[in-house]
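hey m, so remember when u said the C-alpha cells were messed up on ur end? i reran from scratch. heres the input so u can diff it against urs
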Amino acid sequence: MNNSQKHIKSESLLPNSPFRGLGGSDGGAYHIPALLAETIEGLNIKPDGVYVDVTFGGSGHSREILKHLGAKGRLFGFDQDEDALQNMIDDERFTFVRSNFRYLTNFLKYHGVEKVDGILADLGVSFHHFDEAERGFSFRFEGKLDMRMNTRSSFTAARVVNEYSKEQLADVFYLYGEMHNSRRIASAIAKARSMGRIESIEQFLEVLKPFFPREREKKEMAKVFQALRIEVNKEMKVLQELLSQSVETLNENGRLVVLTYHSLEDRLVKNFIRSGNFEGKQVKDFYGNIIAPLKAVNNKVITASEEETARNPRARSAKLRIAEKPAP
C-alpha cells in the first residue's frame, strides 16, 4: 500500500464522511492566486508547523505552502465544492477536508489537532466558478440561477429570487450589493415571478435590464449577482464564524492571513483584527490599551502591484490583511 492509499484509508474511518483524503493530479488553470508571494510571507511558515488553507480551490496556495514545509509539517485544505477534488495533492503531509470552513475546529479535532500555526483564507471566487456556465455564477452565460458553492445543498439563487419576500430581496440587494434601488428591483422581481417562476439567468436578466443604463450595465449586474451569491452561500455569516474560531485555533504567534475582494468582507476582517468584534467597537483596558485577541501585522492593507494586475486583472480588487495571535 503506497502513501496515497494509506492516506485515503485514514480518511474513511468516519461513515458517510463529508471529506475525503485523495491523491490527485496537478491543478490546472482553475484559479490564479492573487498576492501569492505576499500571502506566503504573511504566514511566516515554520517547517514543522501545522497550517490550514480553508479555501483550497485550485490548490495554488496549498502547493506553495507545502514547498515551505519540512517532513514533519502538516497542511489541511478545506473546500466544500466537489470540483476542488480535481486539484487534489498527493502528499502525505496534506489532508483534504471536503467541508465548509465554518466547521474548522470540529474537523481539526477529529484529526487530533487542537492548535495550528497559520490559517489562510482566500475569499475570492475562483475563475472556475465564473467560467463554468452551469454553475450560474456569471451573467455572461445562459443557464440556471444556481450559485451554490456546495452542490450538495438544495438552496439555490432561484430559491432566493422566487421564495423571498419583496422586503427580504430588497435587504439582500442593499446589504450585499450596496444597491440604492434595491426596493424597486425587488418589486420588479416580485411582479415578474407572479407570472411564472424565474429559473434561468436569461429570465432574471430580462427583469434587471430596465434598471441599468448600458454604460453601467455590467457593473450593476455584477453587484446583483454578488448579492445573490453571498446570500445563497451565507458568506458573511460563515466568515464571521471562521474569524471567531481562528482565535481559539491559532497557537501563540500563529498567523491569520485573509484575502478579501469586496468592501463587505474587508470591513469584517479589518474590524475583527482591530477590535475583536465585527462592529469595530474598541474596548480599552485600564491603561488605555485596546483589548483584542489578534494583533495586526500589516497596519496598511496590502494590494497587488501594477505588474501583477497586468498579468492577473482579477487581482486588482484583492486586499490582504495579516494578523498574529500574541503571547499572553
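this time it looks ok to me. The first helix runs from residue 3 to 11. if urs says something different then somethings off w ur setup not the seq
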